[in-house]
Amino acid sequence: MHPQSNTFTEDERREKQRPSWRQHLIEVERGFAQIIRSDSVFFFHTFCLTIVLTCSFILGLSMMEWAMVVLSCTLAISAEMFNKVLKAIWDSLGHHFSEAARNSIRIGTASATLTLIGASITVGIILGHRLWVLLH
């Protein structure tokens, strides 16, 4: 007989012992780890984010510029994550819906792309302006 057949698994036991705020942080970490491992596009966004933050630090952005850069990057990554969730839902449940429902995937992809373009332009303007000021 298997020793844990009538009991909780080790993961379930640990989850029940943790406070809810700590369990929430663990789920956040697992979500980030899962999306970075499973999606090369998201890994590329993370790489670009590292470059943007490094350039922002080197160029010495003001507090307002930092706020706009962080907000732009957060919006772009969040839009990409929501698009990934939409695709995962469609992959698992999409065969139950009509082909017209596939438009939701197209709209989600367009939305994520538009957010990424807007964030890139915003960050480009901020970093370009700061570089212009430093060189002239």
Structure explained in plain terms:
The structure is a single chain. By secondary structure, this protein is mainly alpha-helical. It has two domains: 1-38, no CATH class; 40-135, Helix Hairpins. The chain has helices spanning 10-17, 20-38, 40-59, 63-93, 103-135. α4 (63-93) runs antiparallel to α5. It is flat, with a radius of gyration of 21 Å. The termini are far apart. The mean pLDDT is 85.
Level-1 CATH class name of the largest domain? Mainly Alpha
State the helicity in percent bands.
Answer: over 70%
Question: What structural class do you assign from the helix and strand content?
Answer: mainly alpha
> How do the helices and strands follow one another from N- to C-terminus?
HHHHH
Report the total helices.
Answer: 5
Q: Give the mean pLDDT.
A: 85
* Principal-axis shape: flat
Q: Let me know the number of strands.
A: 0
CATH architecture of the largest domain: Orthogonal Bundle
- Give the tally of structural domains: 2
Compute the separation of the termini in Å: 77 Å
- Structural Rg: 21 Å
Tell me the layout of helices and strands.
Blueprint: H1 10-17, H2 20-38, H3 40-59, H4 63-93, H5 103-135
Which keywords apply here?
136 residues; mainly alpha; Helix Hairpins; flat
